[in-house]
């Protein structure tokens, strides 16, 4: 098996190209692609820390470091639930909301660019295939 003939090679290469492009653009706004992704996924009513960890697929220690950095940049703040001290929600500051809108705009423009350069058939096929690969990856149990 040649490494450049595997599905996961092309998945990783495509995602790395997209992530690199997002990082180039995000740096113009003083953030990273990962920061933008976190900000986009924090809702007006706050988002539980556990939900953010699931979205990012990171462990609690890594998430804590990310959230600490976002707090230092004054993009977020955290509030502990008074009834359940274990429950913490993350909220956006005014600056965080501004950066989230910038990140959303970058994502919209990039997806519009892709839509302009892919036929409807290519787009539908790609999404269907990626969804199926995701399902299979979740189901996969190595022997």
Commentary on this structure:
The chain has 143 residues and is mainly α. It has one domain (37-139): Arc Repressor Mutant, subunit A. Helix content is 66%, strand content 8%. It contains six helices and three strands, in the order ααβααββαα. It has a three-stranded antiparallel beta sheet. A hairpin with a 7-residue loop joins strand 2 (76-80) and strand 3. Helix 2 (33-40) packs across helix 5. The longest helix is centred in the last third of the chain and has 24 residues, at 94-117. It is globular.
Can you describe this structure in just a few lines?
66% of the residues lie in helices and 8% in strands. With 143 residues, it is mostly helical. It has one domain (37-139): Winged helix-like DNA-binding domain superfamily/Winged helix DNA-binding domain (Arc Repressor Mutant, subunit A, Orthogonal Bundle), CATH 1.10.10.
CATH level 1 name: Mainly Alpha
The CATH topology is given as Arc Repressor Mutant, subunit A
Poorly predicted ranges: none
Specify the number of helices: 6
> What overall geometry do the principal axes of the alpha carbons give?
globular
Helix content: 55-70%
Known CATH architecture = Orthogonal Bundle
Question: What is the rounded Rg?
Answer: 18 Å
Mind summarizing the main beta sheet? 3 strands, antiparallel
- What is the chain-wise order of helices and strands? HHEHHEEHH
- Strand % is 5-15%
End-to-end separation in angstroms reads 19 Å
Name the CATH superfamily assignment: Winged helix-like DNA-binding domain superfamily/Winged helix DNA-binding domain
Number of domains: 1
Number of strands: 3
Record the strand order, biggest sheet: 1-3-2
On the 0-100 scale, what is the average pLDDT?
A: 91
Instruction: Determine the structural class based on helices, strands and strand pairing.
Output: mainly alpha
């Amino acid at each position: 098996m040649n490494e450049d003939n595997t599905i996961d090679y092309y998945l990783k290469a495509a995602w790395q190209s997209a992530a690199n492009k997002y990082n180039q653009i995000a740096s113009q706004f003083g953030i990273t692609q990962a920061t933008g992704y976190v900000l986009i996924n924090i809702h007006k009513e706050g988002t539980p820390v556990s939900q953010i960890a699931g979205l990012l697929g990171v462990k609690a220690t890594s998430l804590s470091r990310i959230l600490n950095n976002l707090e230092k940049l004054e993009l977020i703040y955290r509030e502990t639930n008074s009834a359940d001290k274990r429950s913490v929600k993350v909220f956006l500051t005014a600056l965080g909301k501004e950066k989230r809108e910038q990140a959303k705009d970058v994502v919209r423009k990039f997806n519009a660019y892709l839509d302009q350069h892919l036929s409807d058939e290519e787009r539908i096929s790609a999404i269907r295939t990626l969804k199926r690969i995701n399902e299979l990856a979740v189901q996969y149990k190595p022997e």
